Amino acid sequence: MNFLGEAITVTRRARGLTQGELAEMAGVTQAALSRYETAMREPDNEVLGRIADALGVTPRFLEHAGRARGAMAVDAHMRRRQTAKPTVWKKLEAQLNVYRMHASMLFEEIALRAEQRIPTFDPIATNPADAARLVRMQWRMPIGPVRGLMQWLEAAGCLIIESDFGTSRIDGLSQWVDGHPIMFINSIAPTDRKRLTLAHELGHLVLHSEEVVEDVESQANAFAAEFLMPLDVIRPQLRNLQVNILADLKREWGVSMAAIVERAYDAGLIKADRRTSVYKLFSARGWKTSEPVSQELTPERPSLQYDISAALSDRGLHENDIASMAGFTSSKHNDLIPPRPGNLHRVV
């Protein structure tokens, strides 16, 4: 089966282009492009080159997408609200699939040496809280709040890409890339929400790499809660939870006040009526849309892709060489491994 057409389709969607727009940019008719995308016909090398150039990728990228992985449009785990528009999350899912293929090409050329690894567990045999505790133990994480969550993930070989999603209703997506984990995170989210998203997506990678089970979102939420707020440690602070200490707990644990309330409720440390009264107070103070002290939390920013870029540059590779390795036409299109000055040498 030929997946070249699917690769063209997914890359076009990731770029936010209609079929007609791409056809005009590539100098082909929309009818011809439709036949290419549906695999009714295969473009010759010259036409494929024009299509790839219009998409900002190399012809090898489009051909590799089909050969290496079969169907390119692999479903992604996604942390989103029910009101998120399907058109928006489908575009983001396409973008993650494209990043997945760029990363796959890059990892064929370089060896990624990670200090740790992200383990996987059978979600039927291992409950989310136990999985979170096992990950923390395997990574030898200190007891208590997680400091520098992105750094822990990147030390385990997780490639984290940030982008402005243009909406606050989708927080992040994740997939595995030939044994390498990748996360696509909404850069406009406040730090507390971003950290919860990272832990949530880690839960998907740990628990849902192979097995398809019911209620995967609840499992990822339970994993994230235990990973960021181990119950044995935080329990004393959640007994008789008072609103006036929530801001201090947020500063300490790096999660939202709402997440702390949910942790207390799920653990049976506050009752439903108390939870309801707290959220009514949140609404009255405008905290449901904008919590206090979020700006005081240390921002989480990825650095692994910049480390890769710096290490490859030290090998004498030009920015365009690095872009070509990942399947981009030039460095200006390379938003997977962008250049950054500095002495960052950790991974390659």
TrEMBL record:
An MF annotation (GO) of this entry: DNA binding
InterPro entries referenced in this protein's UniProt entry, alphabetically: Cro/C1-type_HTH (IPR001387), IrrE_HExxH (IPR010359), Lambda_DNA-bd_dom_sf (IPR010982), Rad_response_metalloprotease (IPR052345)
Domain HTH cro/C1-type: 12-62
Listed PROSITE patterns: HTH_CROC1
Family: Belongs to the short-chain fatty acyl-CoA assimilation regulator (ScfR) family.
Entry-linked PANTHER family: ANTITOXIN HIGA1 (PTHR43236), BLL7220 PROTEIN (PTHR43236:SF1)
Name of the featured protein: ImmA/IrrE family metallo-endopeptidase
Phylogenetic placement of the source organism: Bacteria, Bacillati, Actinomycetota, Actinomycetes, Propionibacteriales
